Amino acid sequence: xxxxxxxxxxxxxxxxxxxxxxxxxxxxxxxxxxxxxxxxxxxxxxxxxxxxxxxxxxxxxxxxxxxxxxxxxxxxxxxxxxxxxxxxxxxxxxxxxxxxxxxxxxxxxxxxxxxxxxxxxxxxxxxxxx
Length: 130
Description:
By secondary structure, this protein is an alpha+beta fold. The protein has one domain (2-123). It is built from two helices and ten strands. The protein has helices at 30-47, 79-91; strands at residues 2-9, 15-24, 27-29, 52-53, 62-65, 68-71, 95-99, 102-104, 110-112, 118-123. α1 crosses α2 (79-91).
């Protein structure tokens, strides 16, 4: 069984968050890893729903805040809906993923987890006015 470290960083390389997950198969696609990450972060939120969500993509009807999202009211979030939004965001260059020392560009690309790689997620922020 393998493990992975999920890290979020800003575009300038500043660390935002980091957490590890073990007990994984030796190889997984980027799609599977994104869905796994989203399911884990939504599960963590849903244990004690609040008006803040700290995750990869913005839930429906939420406002973007520094390093997270503000929900109108505390509620549970559907991980499948979030995972689909994350896949769309990846395809639209809303964030990119580094696996070890290289950028992955395809959801179906396979990542070897036997070396315990870091997966670095870098969210790209739209500039005001354009």
